[in-house]
Each structure stands twice: as C-alpha cells, then as structure tokens.
Amino acid sequence: MERIHAILFLLVIFVWLSLLFGVWLIYHFIVPLTVANSRCYIVIFLNAVIKILLSIGIIAGWLTLWYKLTKRVFEWERRRWH
Amino acid sequence: MSFFLDATSILLKLVPLILLQYTVVELLLSRYIAKAKEKGIIGIDVHKRDKPRVAEMGGIILLFGYTLGLSLSSILFPRIAPHFLALACVGVIAGVIGLMDDVITLGGKEKPLLLLLSALPILTSSAFSPRLELPFIGSTRLTIIYPLSLFILITVGANAINLIDVLNGVMPGISIIVISSMVICGLISGDVDVVYLAPPLLAPLAAYFRYNRYPAKVFGGDTGSLSTGAIMTALAILGKVEFEYLVALIPVVMNGFYIVSTAGLSEHRKVKRPTLLTEGGEISISREEGIPITLVGLIVGSKPLKEQEVVKTIFLLMAFSSCLAILTSLLIPV
Fold it and tell me: Which residue of A5, A13, A23 is in closest CB contact with B299?
C-alpha cells in the first residue's frame, strides 16, 4: 500500500471520530446550555441563537482544520512526485 | 431471531422482482448502447490512451429501472407504499435535473438550487418522521431543524455522488457498497424498512455496473449520478439510517468538500483537470497550479496508477468507511 493511501484511510478515521465527538459535544454541552431560566421569549430566542452560533463555530473550525490538513498532505505528495 | 426471519422472508418475496429489474435494465442497456452510438449520443473516455467513444446518458435506463422496481414494490408491500413512491419521486425529480444538465449544461449554482426541490416528496409524504437517531444519544426529536436540513442533505448527497462519478464503474460500485451497508445497519438497529427499500435500488445498479465497469460501454451522465445520489440519501432518511449513511459516505463527501473548497461552486466541466494521462496510460497528478484537490488526485498523488487500481482503492476506502458505519450503528442506543 502506498503511503498516501494509508494517510487517506487515517483521514477517514479522523473524520469519523470528529463526527462522533462533534455529536457528543453538541448534545451534551451546547444543547443543555441555558443563559438564564426565563419565560421571556427574547431570552429563549437569544439562548437558541447562542447555541446555533456555537455549533456552527465548532463545525466551521473542524472543517477548516480538516481542509488545511488534507491540502498540506496533497501539496507535499505532489511536490515529492514532480 | 424472528426479526431476521422477517427480513429473510421479505428478501425472498423480492427475489422475482429483483430478477425482473436486473433483466429489464440489462436488456434495455444493451439496446440503448447501440442506439446511442448510432444517434451520436456519445462521450469520450478521457482516461484511456485511445480515447474511445462511449454511449452517454445511460442513466435514463438506470432511473427507469429504479422507478419500475419501486412502483412494483409499492404494490407488493402496500404497508410502506408511501416510502417506495416517495423514493421514486425523489429519483425522478433529481433525474430530470440531471437530464437538463446533460442536455443544456446548468450552471454551478443553478444545479444545487434546483436539486433542493427533490427533497419535497419526502417532506410531503406520510413516510417521513422528524426523528434523527444519533450515536450515544439515541432518538432525538428535531421538528424544525431536521425537516429544513433535508433539503441540504439531499442536495449534498446527490452532488457528492455526481462529483465522484469520474472513473469507470465508480458510481454504481460505491452505491452498491453504501446501500448494502445501510441494509446491515438497518438490521442491527432493528428497523426493517430499509430491508424493503434497498433491493429495488440494488438490482438496476448491479445491471448498470456490468456495462459501466472498466472498460466502460456506457456512461450514466448526470441523470444517473444525481438520481442515484438523491435516491440513496432519501433511502437513508426513510430507512432511519441517516448518520450511518453519512459515515459510509465519508470518502465521497471528502471529495465533494475538497472540490467545493478549492474551486467553489463553478460548473465542474469548467474546473481545471487535477489529473492527466501518462504515456503508459496511467493516471497521474497534474503539474498545474491551482488544480482542485480530489479523491482521485490524492490517490495518484505520490505515484501514477492505472485506472483499475485507482477504482480499486476507492472501493477499498468505501468498504472501510462502510465498516465504520456498521460500527456506528452499534453505538446508537435502541
């Protein structure tokens, strides 16, 4: 097996573990997060917005990391070959 | 035990239908290839040195095979007829968009926007329930976010399969691997619906694979890849194996994500080719700057490889991610 193929298999495992960790993190830490116990609709709305922004932040950060990691591997292997 | 006996009896009931579908698609494809060549509906196989002319738009026959099987299944199993019909409608809408793209070439933004429409049959059918099953958590009730995310899910699924359909046999091969893993995941989670829904999709794919594998005699075009991608995603939603499907599809989603990240939403025919053909007929990575990162590009990144070797590596990656999907279904509390 080529080294790049082994790296690809590792990348698949990285994405899988990240998905599992992301689900666990969002469900256990972000969904139960409450800014304040209130019946006021504005507070409930703000609470939901914060949760969604935090989830988007985690997903965006993870996607950037994933992309940069692969790009580095790709460019490095390409330079080595040519 | 009784659950597995139920699943076996369903599969036995489906055997004549599967055989019928396989034979019809096989016969139609063999005739279509000759007719398409005669009428000039052809594409060039760019990954061969002699650049053979191959019949194009064979996806129409594949879509016909799906629709035939799903319609007949809805008569055989009236209990889940809405599921079968919703799947058929999703396939037809995505197939028509694919056909439009094959004929008039839609823009890079028009195609995903139009594909959003293919989620409508699921949302409007009684087959859909907004319960997403997640690992470690189990069933969740997402009445607002989940129905909205269906539009994105089906569009991403269809486009991801479309973007990976670049080598002989890849699209039907990976679809067969992913659908089979979904059936196993359904059996593990105790949800029998996916066992009913999958066989009418597997039979036409198997017949199509015979003609699309190396050296390809027919290309599916966007009609085949978009309809297959949309139907597979709809199958995962209706079969309640969405998360497992996402895991099984990781290499394909990776490929789509890299292309969109480097080339944006431009029409894929206008994007710079990441690979080239060597004198020896092997696929090599291009020297050009600014080429998109693709799964094929990564596979041939360190050394040129023959087309069959690249396809074999993609299948290995898909089989691996499918095993991870099966492992994931064990992590979902019943």
Answer: A5
